[in-house]
Amino acid sequence: MKNNQAKLICVLGPTAIGKTALGIQLAKYYNTEIISADSRQFYKEMQIGTAVPSAKELAAAKHHFIQHISIEEAYSVGQFEQDANEKLKTLCKQKDKVILVGGSGLYVKSVTEGLDEFPKVNEEIREQLNKELENKGLAYLQTELKKVDPKAYQAIAIANPKRVIRALAVYRASAKTYSSFLGQKKKDKNFSVLKIGLTAPREIIYNRIEQRVDIMMENGLLDEAKTLFDKRNLNALNTVGYKELFAYLEGSISLEKAIAEIKKNTRRFAKRQLTWFTNQEDALWLDYQTPFKEIISIVEKKITQANNMPV
């Protein structure tokens, strides 16, 4: 990797930890722009429940991939990877540093590392596998996967039906194992990556989550959910903060219960984020209260070290 490449500074961490604020501070300091890799913030119709940056925050630094599509549009992580890389090609010619902010691990990975490319799978194959799951159970599909692709059986979360179905779908569509498509050589990037992670004791993260949910409710999350209620079956709306309020609007739970469920499910989401981010061994983890001057000092030191490394 060339030392004179643009630097993509990635701000990582669980929800409600302060990624947006740090990303904006970095963008202003380096006079650059921000790539958002938060998949919940892509949708125009969802604002309060996804903690989209405020108008003031958006004005403080130029953001890309914030509310750029509709909930009615299909948008995959593969499409995001393509779109983000195209945007970065342009930005990296203009700026020597670009900021990426994101809590969606797979979307961050798609930009920083690239995704493995899998063959297209006919929808009929997926439908057949879903029928087998319903009629024969997950254990039946797990047994088949273990037989045809033991490496995938060991590598994926086999307790997750979606993962098992995906691996089997690739095999049935291509007659090649899912595991054979993993670890492919990725395309060269026109930037190098520096990952900064914000962290805090888990009880502080959970407390910040609960405070954020209360603020969202005060800011009109229920009214936002009401405007989206008729479209609640769309995949984009099957997400924390909306599905619980839809259950309330359907009359199946109380509002108090819905709010408690939002908090509980957001904590679970943060726990999954933490699990993913702790595997990012190349990330520089900092306490969420670290002063910005100290962060800049650390970042500059890391960049200097990287630039002085032999090619």
TrEMBL record:
Catalytic activity: adenosine(37) in tRNA + dimethylallyl diphosphate = N(6)-dimethylallyladenosine(37) in tRNA + diphosphate
Listed InterPro entries: Dimethylallyltransferase (IPR039657), IPT (IPR018022), P-loop_NTPase (IPR027417)
Named cofactor requirement(s): Mg(2+)
UniProt-listed Gene3D superfamilies: 1.10.20.140, P-loop containing nucleotide triphosphate hydrolases (3.40.50.300)
Ligand binding (substrate): T15, A16, I17, G18, K19, T20
Classification via SUPFAM superfamilies: P-loop containing nucleoside triphosphate hydrolases (SSF52540)
Record-listed ATP binding positions: G13, P14, T15, A16, I17, G18, K19, T20
Keywords: ATP-binding, Magnesium, Nucleotide-binding, Transferase, tRNA processing
Site positions for Interaction with substrate tRNA: S104, R126
Segments of this protein annotated with the region Interaction with substrate tRNA: 38-41
GO MF, one annotated term: ATP binding
One GO term of the biological process aspect: tRNA modification
Nucleotide-binding recorded as keyword: yes
Any Pfam family matching the protein: IPPT
EC number annotated for this UniProt entry: 2.5.1.75
Family: Belongs to the IPP transferase family.
Cited function: Catalyzes the transfer of a dimethylallyl group onto the adenine at position 37 in tRNAs that read codons beginning with uridine, leading to the formation of N6-(dimethylallyl)adenosine (i(6)A).
Subunit structure: Monomer.
Classification via PANTHER family: TRNA DIMETHYLALLYLTRANSFERASE
Protein name stated in the entry: tRNA dimethylallyltransferase
Natural source organism: Psychroflexus salis
